[in-house]
Amino acid sequence: MIVRIRLSHGPRETPDAGGGTQPSLVPEVAALPEPGKVRPQEAAEAASMVLAPVCWSLWAMACWRLAADMRIAGPFFLSEGLFSHWQVWFTLGLGVHTAVKHLRRRSLG
User: Fold this and answer.
1) What is the structure's pLDDT at 12?
2) Per-residue b/e over 57-81, b at no fewer than 16 CB within 10 Å?
3) pLDDT score, position 11
4) Is this model's pTM higher than 0.85 or not?
5) Domain boundaries, the chain
6) CA distance 66 to 83
7) Phi, psi torsion values for 62, nearest 5 degrees
8) What are the distances in angstroms from CA 59 to CA 28, 65, 80, 89?
9) pLDDT the model gives residue 92
10) Is the pLDDT of residue 106 over 80?
């Protein structure tokens, strides 16, 4: 949720009980967009922020699997199947990284 506060140029004056005026310190709050309406740039930015840690996690899995193959690290949790190869984890990380870069570029306009 984004709340935008606009401060006007100079203080606004409000009437006081004595008939005079005094400056108002209450800022004006801008009207927010309708609930449920999200701009595509905001959605792209949110998706890129969510996918960035996923990318690093996939690359960490690739490094772990590669280190396990070289007997530097402990055993990898998958010993058989498609996801037991470091190349698969690296390729998935590369794909997610490409998506993050595209989404960040889209969120800038």
Assistant:
1) 57
2) ebbebbbbbbebeeeeeeebeeeee
3) 53
4) no
5) 40-107
6) 12
7) -65, -45
8) 47, 10, 19, 7
9) 94
10) yes
Query: Looking at residues 73-85, what average pLDDT do you find?
Result: 86
Mapping DSSP onto H, E and C, the string for the chain reads: CCCCEECCCCCEEEECCCCCEEEECCCEECCCCCCCCCCHHHHHHHHHHHHHHHHHHHHHHHHHHHHHHCCCCCCCCCCCCHHHCHHHHHHHHHHHHHHHHHHHHHHCC
Contacting residues for 89 by C-beta, under 8 A, at least 6 apart = 58, 59, 61, 62, 65, 83
CB atoms within 10 A of CB 109: 5
The 10 Å CB-count burial string (b at 16+, else e) for 17-30 is eeeeeeeeeeeeee
Owner of token pair 């409000």: 14
Give the number of other CB atoms < 10 A from CB of residue 90. 17
Pairing state of beta strands 5-6 and 28-29?
antiparallel
Tokens of residue 17, six digits? 């009980």
CA distance 59 to 103: 19
